[in-house]
Each structure stands twice: as structure tokens, then as C-alpha cells.
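User: Predict the complex with nicotinamide-adenine-dinucleotide.
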Amino acid sequence: MKRFTNKIILVTGSARGIGGASVEQFAEEGGIVYTTDIDMDALTSATQALQARDLKVEALHQDASSEADWATTVATILDKHGRLDVLVNNAGMGQLIPVEDSTLAQWQNVMAVNLESVFLGTRIGIKTMKEKGGVIINVASIAANVAEPLFPAYNATKGGVSMFTKAAAVDCARKGYPVRINSLHPGYCETKLVADAVAGLGNKAEAFVKAVVASIPIGRLATPWEIARPLLFLASDDARYMIGNELVVDGGYIAV
Ligand SMILES: NC(=O)c1ccc[n+]([C@@H]2O[C@H](COP(=O)([O-])OP(=O)(O)OC[C@H]3O[C@@H](n4cnc5c(N)ncnc54)[C@H](O)[C@@H]3O)[C@@H](O)[C@H]2O)c1
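Assistant: Here is the predicted structure with nicotinamide-adenine-dinucleotide placed in the model:
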């Protein structure tokens, strides 16, 4: 049974990784999926591969931290379909810099990409969905739940995403809007974000990866596919009583 037949879906930062796997799964389940990113080369080739399988996927350039890009992206979708059913605020970046070594500009960059993007998306999502209904999923992280001294700004953004999600979800519910908002908290996953961050550690990279894997009871990182499956559950009617919740998908990382 396909859960998203003819649903209009937008996933940000979805040229690859968790977003890319989500786009593929939504489309396989019948969705009409808008995939957006700033990396147009990667986005175009990923989209063409899905379109070649007759999946309904459209690529748009969108910087998720740009208010103007949000307005353009949502207007494009509404012009064509008149509604948006599912919005996944997935775009994000990693940054491994201890507090005392970070500049204000580095801090502000992560805030813009990981947290302001989620505010902008959720705000326009609520305005778009509050009459016809919809679902918003904000991709946080176990970094919203557990401190990691190597990435304090990332911790702050994901903690912010989690609490912001709860506030927005409760606001919608209390106003009687048919809009469900939740956050997804993946553990370590095999994506470019993690590969780039680890590469930046130079000769400390191997020890970092060893320590991370040793801290995951399942004993390995997740694949993007394994994170996207629970994301689709959160977007589906099976999760209709869930609002303002954190869905943790981490191989047991925060359980110990
Ligand atoms: N990989 C992990 O271990 C992990 C764990 C927890 C949470 N997350 C979160 O999952 C989300 C996806 O990360 P991923 O691991 O798949 O990373 P990824 O690097 O594979 O994909 C992220 C995508 O976002 C895009 N992007 C970056 N800045 C953007 C912007 N301003 N506007 C639009 N697109 C932008 C990149 O071009 C890239 O295609 C992020 O929010 C990340 O913080 C990842």
C-alpha cells in the first residue's frame, strides 16, 4: 500500500544523504516530491536518476536559510498544485569547532543553515497548511539530546530545532490547525556531512570514528535509508497522534 499517493511533498537539502533517501522513498510511495538544495550538480543528477524510474520528482534551487528562496519555492509549488502536504526541513551542515576556537561568523553560519532555515520553513509551512492541513518534520539530531564538546554550535542548533518544534507544534494544536509538527533525531549516519566533518579532524579522525562506533550499541553507523524509513512514518497518518515529539533513531546511542 502506498502511503503518499499524490501528496505534495517538499524536502530541503535533499541532493544526497538523509534528504536524498527520503525523496526516493516518498516518490516510491506515490508522492509528488520537490527536492531542493544549493548543490545543483548533485541535485540534478540525483533527480534525473529518480525521474528515469518514472518517479515524480522535481528539482528546485533553494538556499534553506534564505527568506526570499522560501517564498519563491513555496509559490512555485502552490502555483502548480494549490497545496503542500508534507514539508521536511532537512537541510543542514556540520561543524567541528570547540567553543574557544570558534569565531562569531562561524557560529552565525551554523545558526543560519541549521536553525534559521527551520524557523523560515516552519513559519511558511504553517501559513500554507493551516487551512488544508499538513505535516512538518524538522530534522534535528541526537546532538539535541547529548553534548559533544567537539561541536557546540551544532549542539545548540539542534537543541534549538527540538524546542522550537515543540513550541510550534503546541501552538498549532491549541489553535486547532490541522498541522502536525515533530522533530526527527538521527544518530550518526553514513553521509557526506559526517565524512566531511571527520576528514576535517585530520590525524584525530580515526580515533574519533572508533569512539563513535564504540558508543553505538548496534555497533555501526546508520544508512540514510534506515533514517528515512522512520521519517516517512512520522509523515504518515500512522503518526497522527504525534505532535511536538522527538523521534530518536540512533542504534541505541542515547540509551546508554
Ligand atoms: N549524518 C548524520 O550523522 C546526521 C545525524 C543527525 C542529524 N543529521 C541531520 O540530517 C540532515 C541531513 O544531513 P545529512 O547527514 O544527510 O548531510 P548531507 O551533507 O549528506 O546532506 C545535506 C544536504 O544539505 C545541503 N545544504 C547545505 N546547506 C544548505 C542550505 N543552506 N540550503 C539548502 N541545502 C543545503 C547540502 O548541499 C547537502 O546536499 C541535517 O540537518 C543534519 O544535521 C545528520
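The chain has a mean pLDDT of 98.
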